[in-house]
DNA sequence: GTCTATATGAAGATAGAC
DNA sequence: GTCTATCTTCATATAGAC
């Protein structure tokens, strides 16, 4: 929407991030111009540089913030329990958290190649930290004989890939509720690692 | 490599496709210029238009060809048998075929948003045809009581997503051979759908 | 903090010579 | 079939007025 000249710093910052998030997810980082983002926010392109030093940093901030939000959210709800209980908790958390942020998740996986090596290392470290919890759960389950997994590192990647797939098709209000989706995937995860 | 003026149509065509494939996979369709492709091939940018009407068609051709290769390869080796045998055959075929074509697979999933609606429909129809075989296998297994799957449509998408994940980490000559990878994933697939 | 204006470069695609 | 040259548009980013 058009906007007359003036000061709006308190609201423009978040709006820039929201517009970039939505456009990057829909068209891809490389295909989106600063002018497009500015148009969506309702300012001229030059004004965006009050909020980001360049387009690249905008992408990196979105990705890093998403990974930090993921780790914070997980730390806030992770429960103690048996390996089986922890695995169910992780599975359901992963599906729910990611289904609520389709744009962030899409960008976090698709735009890795547009990061500098240093930025990539930061994002990958955060992602690895998240995946480590799942690997720990699988290791614990194998150690106590509840799970039979030939390679917990690969099983971790396989489970994450399977769960991430939910975002490619799940839509609120579709044939299945999120609860049903969680139950279906938990059923497959549970059996896939069962002893 | 530099190339003097002259006629090279018989070899330039495939080289254009190979260069585009490699560059699109590495940097993304939107981030690659026709000049980059031309440089890789060793011609000037204008010469590319002897082989493609535009950049977009180049992408579509790569994606459609990949999906047709996949269906052809699958049709050539698909076996009859029990649901369990067919599922193992499909699982191992999927991993092997996709691991041999990382660039094609990457593009086929990442660049869907750069297709026109008509092009997208073509690629999706081919993909759907491939996935239908897996769904049929799961339905057959459920019908005869060998499998317990609450929703075969979702299980199909979940299995494909899990198997596609192999390409994000598998490298020839790494810790595991492709045979070992196939065995590990087949173990998880088998158990995930087991009755 | 936002605007207008602009510097600078590169993009996709085409024309016409060889 | 490929070249050089060019048309036209658009990109990121900055400068300076308000």
Write the layout of secondary structure elements.
The structure is a homodimer of 195-residue chains.
Chain A: H1 9-27, H2 34-41, H3 55-77, H4 83-99, H5 102-110, H6 117-143, H7 152-164, H8 166-169, H9 178-193
The structure holds a DNA duplex (18 and 18 nucleotides).
List keywords for this structure.
homodimer; 195 residues; mainly alpha; Arc Repressor Mutant, subunit A; Tetracycline Repressor, domain 2; 2 domains; DNA-binding
| Most residues in contact, chain pair and counts | A-B, 34 and 35 residues
Give the overall shape of chain A.
Answer: elongated
Main pleated sheet of chain A: none
The fold-level CATH name of the largest domain in chain A is Tetracycline Repressor, domain 2
Mean pLDDT across the residues of chain A is: 95
Number of strands of chain A: 0
Give the tally of structural domains of chain A: 2
**Count of individual helical segments of chain A:** 9
Our estimate of the beta-strand percent of chain A is under 5%
Task: Supply Rg of chain A.
Answer: 20 Å
Low-confidence stretches of chain A: none
What do we call the CATH homologous superfamily of the largest domain in chain A? Tetracycline Repressor, domain 2
Instruction: Give the second-level CATH assignment, the architecture of the largest domain in chain A.
Output: Orthogonal Bundle
Counting helices, strands and paired strands, the structural category of chain A is mainly alpha
List the secondary-structure elements of chain A in sequence, H or E: HHHHHHHHH
Distance between the termini of chain A: 58 Å
What is the highest CATH level, the class of the largest domain in chain A? Mainly Alpha
Can you give the helix content of chain A as a percent range?
55-70%
Quaternary state of this entry equals: homodimer
